[in-house]
Amino acid sequence: MNTYKEKPWVQGMARGVLPIAGVMIGVLAWDFVKKSKTGLGWLMTIIYLVISFVVMELLGIHPAILIVAFIIVAMFSRKKKSDQAGER
């Protein structure tokens, strides 16, 4: 692979991948936001978006840590909801 990395056509392909990947990630993220309306509601979605922005951009915390934190919150909130449904 190192043999071809200096070729102009390889460099052009590499420069073309980044914008495509960025658009794909953006479309996927927007799709998640739209679908969260049914699961969380707009208020919780906006709260989570603001928390995510502050944690990643202003505090500089790695996104993986934020994802793990949200997964933990989701596990405990689901457990509470399922426990309440079982009590009825």
Summarize the structure.
The chain crosses the membrane at residues 12-33, 45-76. The chain has 3 helices and no strands. The protein is an all-alpha fold and 88 residues long.
- Put simply, the count of helices is 3
The domain tally reads 2
Terminal CA distance:
62 Å
Contiguous uncertain segments of 5+ residues: none
Reading the helices and strands in chain order gives: HHH
**Could you tell me the mean pLDDT?**
83
Largest sheet: none
How much helix is in the residues?
over 70%
Q: Any idea what the radius of gyration is? A: 20 Å
Number of beta strands:
0
Class per helix and strand makeup: mainly alpha
Query: What percent of residues are in strands?
Result: under 5%
Mass-distribution shape: elongated
Family: Belongs to the chromate ion transporter (CHR) (TC 2.A.51) family.
Pfam families: Chromate_transp (PF02417)
Subcellular location: Cell membrane
Membrane topology: Multi-pass membrane protein
Task: Give your account of this protein's structure.
With 88 residues, this protein is mainly alpha-helical. The protein has two domains: 39 residues; 48 residues. 84% of the residues lie in helices and 0% in strands. The radius of gyration is 20 Å and the shape is elongated. The model has no long low-confidence stretch (mean pLDDT 83).
Record keyword descriptors for this entry.
single chain; 88 residues; mainly alpha; 3 helices; Chromate_transpt; cell membrane
Task: Describe the secondary structure blueprint for this structure.
Elements: H1 8-39, H2 42-58, H3 63-87
